[in-house]
Amino acid sequence: MALKILSVDDELDLELLLSQYFRRKIRKGEYEFFFAHNGIEALQQLLTHPDIDIILSDINMPEMDGLTLLKKIKDRNNPAMKVIMVSAYGEMGNIREAMNNGAYDFATKPIDLEDLERTIEKAREEIAFIKQTQKEHGQLVDIKADLSLASEVQNAILPQQFPPFKDLTEKMDIHATMRPAKDVGGDFYDFFRIDDSHIGIAMADVAGKGVPAALFMTMSHTLLRFTGSRCLDPITTITESNNMLSKESFDSMFVTVFYGVYDVNSGELTFVNAGHNPPYILHADGTVCELSTMPALCLGVLEDFEYTSHKVTLSKGDTLVTFTDGVTEACSVDNTLYGESQLIAVLESAKGCSASEITSRINSDVSRHADGAEQSDDITVLVLKRA
Questions:
Q1: Closest CA to 35 of 5, 74, 71
Q2: Which one, of 206, 346, 199, lies nearest residue 266 by Cα?
Q3: Phi and psi of 296, rounded to 5°?
Q4: Helix (H), strand (E) at residue 109
């Protein structure tokens, strides 16, 4: 595209001089000149051609002088528009004032056109750099807006209403939170009704961070909920989800999952742990134990992997605490991990607390430990208490 140059001077001879000297660049489409004879005409030209790149402005002109015009141009706040002041050599005071007020460069009369051309080309390079920077900034703003929308969509697919099942409030208490490390996260939790007496619960962590993990998270969440809502057998749910994710996995991504089917009447939880952090059970008497099992393969790695289910029964007042490694691996400013011992201590102090109180205590204690350190991983907690 042609470099657009506005010459502002009350001497008509300058218009002819510039047109003649730069005729080859004008003919080739490298330069495009516009002309005005005072500051007022210059502002009118800028209204008509707001994409003008360079202004060559005389200082002494009728109706509006060059210094006033410079101030008006500065008020437009366009760093890509460069002003080169033109004046007699004896007016160095005005030239100095112009430079102090934002002029890019200056030329003295009689104008050395070769020197002016070098100045214009130098300005062209800087203008190109600024425009590229502005373009990239605009792209970053668009990306940020897209990520913000993606974050809203991601949060919308996770259950946010507590208590979720009003007819079951006398039998169970459930609460969950997720704090992504970036705009979008790879963790997710879920719980959903399978039938009148069974709910499915899931806690998962996708390998990786950012947008790729968020996309894989959405796919994993959708598959788990779709398969789980039709089946009381967690092995079937996990196997079908794993086979689909293994076929569709991109960039060798995988997801660790703790998935269980909970009987709200008996308190029995039938679960499969596919490579995820073992949950804890906070018993009604305040003791804490780990729900450990033999580790199984994460989802999305190998089709037709044979998973094994396990069972545990929650007594009344017992609480299941599931979480992602963003909790235990949260770092302090001196790179000390939060660790399991601190989590267990928080749970031991939470005897008799509700599900929401327990998630709040865990999140608060992790934040206390981090003490302002940057969050490096998503932090997700899901707590299920038998009432």
A1: 5
A2: 199
A3: -120, 170
A4: strand 105-109
